[in-house]
Design a protein that fits this description.
The structure holds 2 protein chains of 2 kinds.
Chain A lengths: L8 E4 L3 H13 L3 E6 L27 H6 L4 E4 L5 H12 L3 E4 L5 H4 L4 H7 L4 E6 L14 H8 L19 H24 L3 E6 H6 L3 H10 L14 E2 L2 E2 L2 E5 L6 E5 L3 H11 L12 H6 L1 H12 L4 H10 L4 E3 L3 H6 L2 H4 L6 E4 L3 E4 L5 E3 L17 H8 L4 H9 L4
Parallel strand pairs in A: 1-2, 1-4, 2-3, 4-5, 5-6
Antiparallel strand pairs in A: 7-8, 9-10, 10-11, 12-13
Helix pairs in contact in A: 1-7
Chain B lengths: L19 E5 L5 H9 L3 E6 L23 H6 L4 E4 L5 H12 L3 E4 L5 H4 L4 H4 L7 E6 L14 H8 L1 H4 E2 L14 H24 L4 E5 H6 L4 H9 L4 E4 L1 E4 L7 E3 L5 E3 L7 H13 L9 H9 L12 H20 L2 H10 L10 H4 L3 H5 L4 E5 L4 E5 L4 E3 L12
Parallel strand pairs in B: 1-2, 1-4, 2-3, 4-5, 5-7, 6-8
Antiparallel strand pairs in B: 8-9, 10-11, 12-13
Helix pairs in contact in B: 1-8, 11-12, 12-13
The chains are: A alpha/beta, B alpha/beta.
Chain lengths: 411, 405
Amino acid sequence: MNGALSHIRICDFTGQLAGAGATRVFAAFGAQVIKIEDPVTRGLWDILRGMEPYVDDRRGIEFGGGFNNHNIEKLGITLNLRTARGKELLAEIVRVSDAVTENFAAGVLERWGFGYERLRELRPDVVYVSNCGFGHVGPYSAFKTWGPIVQACCGLTFESGLPGMPPAGWGFSYMDHHGGNFMAIALLAALHHRNRTGEGQWVDMSCTDAGATLLGPAVLDYTVNGRGLRREGMPHSNHNQSPAMAPHDIYPAQGYDCWVAIACRDDRDWSALRGVIGTEWAADPRFDTRAGRLEHEPELDERMAAWTGPQDKFVVQERVLAAGVPCAAVQTPEERIDHDPGTSGFGLWPTVEHTEMGRVRVDGLPYHLSATDWRMERGAPCLGEHNDFVYGEILGLSEGEIAGLRDEGVI
Amino acid sequence: MTGQPAPDPIEPPGALDGLKVVELASEHAAFAGKLLAGLGAEVTLVEPPGGAPMRWYEPFVDDVPDPTRSLWWWHYEQGKHGVTVDLDDASGAAEFRRLCADADVVVEGEPPGRLAALGLDHAQLRAGHEELIWVSVTPFGRDNPRAHEPVVDLTVLAGGGPVWNCGYDDHAIPPVRGGGNQGYQTASLHAVVATLVALLVRDETGTGQHVDVSMHAAANVTTEAGSYSWLVARQTVQRQTCRHAAVRPTQGTITLDREGRFVPTGIPPRSGKEFHVLLEWLASHGWRDEFPEAFFLQMGADRGGVNFADIATDPEVAAIFGAARDALIFIAERLTAYEFFVEGQQRGLPLPVVYAPEEVMHDPHYRARGFPVPVWHEELGRAVEYTGAPFHMHGSPWRLDTPAP
């Protein structure tokens, strides 16, 4: 076996990060992920195909930096499903695939004639995972979403912010990442189930349901205690409510837009931090106990900010960590990617070779498997880059037949 | 006992039915164990004598601190079976070895080195039990230059990247850590993905392995363009109020609804069809004449849409695009946030509503999907609604309907 999942083949329609992130994991573990794109729209259903960042001055559908990041190690083919021959070829791909994955709007695959019932006729044990903003069932199933809309509608956006301010939100598509992770979990679990029982299934994933599972204690505070997060003074997500800690905040440091996070988990942490601070206010007995620190939190935060403000954020981090207290500079992308032994020591930023872009660094996976680890060497496929391999080697078409498909606009 | 849900006798077992998981109680990996339980695994939660520290995490039922009343505990340990084992004691260690000998998967978040010192690490316990999958969720990974630094959720997200992306346009205001233990949960989600990959490998080979998960690495690969703008182009994104951090600033879209709730109005329309929709939406409320830029919306509709790239060079395009954004704000201010969301979406516009977590539980869509799940609590004499399934697995349903141990 040359990869943990090299025995798995996926017929993959996913795009953006919420879908592509799921099959990315499979590709990194050696599965044969056949990414199917539309030759008519030149694959631009996935808007990231041509979107910045770019490695140099070149632009166009082969130069989207995010697209490369999310589609490493996948095989790229084109297939025009408006044509009858295109549909026949898709049926052949489904027959030889373990799974079909997509994150279109609800009902798109069905309208093409490839709903779950049809997929099962083609491949009785197929695992079909659909992932859309509100799922395929329910009054909002036709609603359209992007990551930020999912996050707003599931409570994540609200839960990120400071009192008296608008929601800060996440500043990125957090639920595209976890949409991908939940989708990968569903697909992996369904494949294990198939291995045990011989049965495939359809998984209807709603990204908003998945997002709402990430807010449990806040929801229980409401369903048990009747206390919602929409109340005076809340949310304050740089503080901590579950468990309550003080100090627990992001404080200013020396320099423009430099910040450092510090948290005392208990009285022992505070006692150690007090030793580092060393000035008189820190010895105030009102701050001795957690209850006292929580009661006087605004004053404590003000004192903390005055202490950290004139210091370099990494100096604070080093001094506070040396006392055994959790502390982290708010790191810029450059700091955490290029200068942090915590990521470089983990091998977190592999370099892949993209046919057009050349060598590019990408996100790795945040775990290592001792026997069958992931590997990222090949970049995302150019549009139709693997047509010859997939139609020739996997489906057994001749060079002449493949050339005919090209001429007829099928691929 | 009215309200106690009856078990559904015809529901098929979960995807991980028959899988035995031993989880050493930890805040790092609690969510991973919960996900495995929801997928059908039998999860045995191992606590030290006196109970795990998380039993003392707020909030509590009726704000009464008690190790059986922590809602953190209720949520994260739901669906698991509890046992008490003292790993520091010889008979406890023997008991833990017995549990592991009978397990398919061990999940733990112990400080690197602790289990090895006790002779209870994967190297010792997988000997002669090669099929065991052992999952460690630690702050920086088991073997890392920073492996022994203490962390909490806040510092994981601050040092790991997400916080840099998140906050307000005014950079004199601190950046923001998104709430809800997302640093821990991010690591746990990745841990479950990796565990299931190892399980699929074991389905083929019969052999388990060690899975080493880093919370810091997990945060680092959960920043979208935050990381890849730097990796690809050495560009740095900057945080903005309730929208994506970006290399070049984008325009704000947040406003207040009729009741004073914040409404992000999203990406302004640009297609011809969407300009027609905006005009129709205004007209449906009798606001078309009241909206001063309706003329530009009509122009956008007549032109069949505008190209975003032409904004800088074509003043007419800039006016049309600006009118679309202003129209959304105009409408949002005259409706409730929920009306704005539903009326816009029903017209095909991708618009959000900002729900507080508790509001999700009342929403008709979530309820129609069976998302809120009642769990019977004997001590309260009533059922409590929990957040439910992340996805509907039709052949092997997700199921979590029993309380924490």
